[in-house]
Amino acid sequence: MTNQPATLYVGRMPRLGELFKLFNAGRHLNRVAEPALWAELEQEQEQYQALFSSLGYQLRVDARGFAWFHFDNANSAVNVTTRQLALLLMLIFEHMSDQGLHLGRFGDWILDRDLLVALMERSHDLLQAEGLDEQNLAGLLDRACNYCLAEVASGGWRLLPAVWRYLDHFESLAAKPHDADDAESEVVLTEQTDDEGEEP
Fold it and tell me: What CA–CA distance (Å, rounded) separates 168 from 134?
């Protein structure tokens, strides 16, 4: 018996081009940042996943409100910016945990300059080894905004649901202390290269 290919109804995907451009640029789609586009994806999720799969792309949709193109070879070339952003997020989660805050509520936090100063004081040697100062940390958060991991908020930045990818990874590493060395280098911001051929 021959398996029949799934029928794709492109007419039911009016924002196909917009979504493909976003995902192919290595960005995340977040429900809270782009609710209309998210609703479009959610309504026809199976259609989008089938179409992108037929084109060789793996669209992953997390029920917590974010989606992205996943590439299995993403860890082969983790660049400096990716590693530094992962380090920054790890330090933010560590700091907030010490403050008694629930890490799963990261979307409620405002990351301001005072926080960056506190991180510099707390982890000065580690950040200095990466060549990072307060201004560099602010630049990393601005870069995160470009890839829909954060957004500018009043007084600073707010993390978006796609950061669950990092938190999930950090928590899995925390459960395996022997694998935690250089944990920040194991988390990939995106799996696509930017216009200059460098991973964001």
Answer: 26
Judge whether 10-70 and 80-175 match in fold. Answer: yes
pLDDT in tens, 58-105: 999 999 999 999 876 554 345 678 888 989 999 999 999 999 999 999
For residue 106, give every residue at least 6 positions away whose Cβ sits within 8 Å of its Cβ, in sequence order, or none: 93, 96, 159, 163, 167
pLDDT in tens, 123-171: 998 898 888 999 999 999 999 999 899 999 988 999 999 999 999 988 8
Full-model pTM: 0.72
**Which CATH architecture fits 80-175?**
Orthogonal Bundle (1.10)
Contact 29, 38 (CB under 8 A): yes
Residue 62 phi/psi, 5-degree rounding, is -95, 135
Neighbours of 89 (CB within 10 A): 26
pLDDT band at 11 (very low <50, low <70, confident <90, very high): low
CATH topology of domain 10-70: Arc Repressor Mutant, subunit A (1.10.10)
Amino acid at site 153 = A
Decide if 25 contacts 192 (C-beta within 8 A): yes
Q: Please state the φ and ψ torsions of residue 48, each to the nearest 5 degrees.
A: -65, -45
Short-list 25, 143, 35, 129, CA closest to 89: 143
Interior/surface letters 38-72, b for 16+ CB within 10 angstroms, e for the rest: bebbeebeebbbbbbeeeebebebeeebbbbbeee
